C-alpha cells in the first residue's frame, strides 16, 4: 500500500513515519508534505492508497483535501490526525466516508491499530477483484506473507492467543488448509555458510524451499515454512497412518540437500525433529524440541537427523563449573592478564567436552553468559569505547551459526580476546584514564553543582589542564559533556514521568528554569513541554 503523510509540522510527519514498521504492514510511505496543495498534487499523480492528514493545513485543509481526493480517487482511505476535539470536524469527516479519526498527541498503539485495520480492509477489497491478474498476484503474495507471519508468531515468538486454537478460524484467517491429524515441526539448520555470503544463502534457501514441496509436501495434508537466518522451521500436518512415510520423506529431504555439497563445499546440514502433537496449540512446544535437537549437533555432529527431546532451562549459571570459571575469567579481565583470561576459556571448553550431561542448548547459553559477563565487567570498569548497540545481537546470530562445540568455543574466544585487546589498550593509555574517571564522576553526580575545579580535584588535575585534556581526548569540552548527560536524563524524565518541567530542571542539576529551557531547546530543537507532548 502506498501511503502519503500530510501535516504542516515537519516533526509530526517524521514522528508518524517513525512510529510504524511500514514494511511489516506491507506499506510504503511515498512522501511527507506540509500543505494541502502539495498533498493533492501527489494524490493526482501517484494515487496513494492511504493518506494520513492533519485537519488544519495551509492551502487546502484536511476536510477540503478529502473532498477533492474522493472525486479523483474514491478508494483512497484517510486517517485524520488533529489536535482539535471539536465534534463538527469528526462529523464532517464521517460525511466524506472517513472512519479513522485520531487526536494528537499520536499514540503508537492507536495508530498501528488503525493501520492494521485499513491494511486488512484493503486486501479484502482487492481480493474480490478476481478478474484482474495483477491484483490476484498481489493477493497471492500477501497470502504468503500472512502465512509466514502466522508461522513466525506461533513458532518463533509464541504470540498467539492462549487456549485451544480453532482450526477452521486459523485456516480462514491465515490461508492454511490444516486438517485433523498430527502436527510436527522440523528445523533444517544450515551450517558452514557465512550470513554475509548473500548469494550462497539465497541459493540454498531457494533449493530447500523447492525440495520441501517435492518431498514432505507430497505426503502431508499441509506444510508451511519460515526462515530465521539459517534456520528453516517447517510445519508438517499429516495423517497418523502416514507417519513412516513422512519420516522417510524427511530423510529424502536431507539426502537431497547433502547433494548440494558438490556445489557448496562448506555446507553442513542438520534436521531436528520436533515432538509430535495432535493439536495446533502444541506446535510451539514441538518447535522448541526441534530447536533443542538441532542444537545437539554440537555434540552429535552434522549431516544427520536428530530426534527432539523435552525442553528444560539452562543450569549453566548455577553450576560449580561455571562459578569457578566466573572467578578466573573476571580476575583475568580485572588484572589485564591475557594468558589467564585465555586459559580460563580453554579450561571451560575442556570441562564441557568431558561432561556427559552437557547439552547443545546449554553450550550456547553458556557462551552467551560468558559474553554478557565480559561486557558487564568492562562496563563496570568504565571502558571508554564500548561495543556498538548491535554487537551482542550480531554475536548471538554468528554464534548460532557454529556447527560444533569446538567451533562455538573458538568463536567465543576470538570475540572475547579481540574486545579484551581493545580494553587493555584503553586501560594502558594513562592520559585517557583521568578522562574516564571524570566522565564517570559526571554521570554519577550530574544532579549536583559540578565545575571543572570540583571534577579536577577528583582526578588530580587543576581545572585549566583538565579542560585542555578533556577537549583533546574526548573531542568535546567538559561543559558540552555535562550538558549532554543532563539533557539525556531530562529527556528520559520528560518521557517517563509526570513531573513538571521545574522538577525535571532541578533533578538534572539546574537551578534556573529559564537557563534549563534555553539549553534544552538548543540541544533538542524543542521546548521541554513540546518534547513531552510529542514523545511521551
UniProtKB/TrEMBL annotation:
Gene Ontology biological-process entries: phosphorelay signal transduction system
Cited InterPro entries: CheY-like_superfamily (IPR011006), Homeodomain-like_sf (IPR009057), HptR (IPR051552), HTH_AraC (IPR018060), Sig_transdc_resp-reg_receiver (IPR001789)
Residues recorded as bearing 4-aspartylphosphate in the entry: 54
Residue ranges of domain Response regulatory in the record: 2-119
Keywords: Cytoplasm, DNA-binding, Phosphoprotein, Transcription, Transcription regulation, Two-component regulatory system
Coiled coil: none
Main location: cytoplasm
Sample GO molecular function, one term: sequence-specific DNA binding
Domain HTH araC/xylS-type: 436-534
Any single Pfam family the record assigns to this protein: HTH_18
GO cellular component: cytoplasm
Domain of life assignment: Bacteria
The keyword Cell wall biogenesis/degradation is annotated on this UniProt entry: no
Location of this chain's protein in the cell: Cytoplasm
Record's function text: May play the central regulatory role in sporulation. It may be an element of the effector pathway responsible for the activation of sporulation genes in response to nutritional stress. Spo0A may act in concert with spo0H (a sigma factor) to control the expression of some genes that are critical to the sporulation process.
This protein's name: Stage 0 sporulation protein A homolog
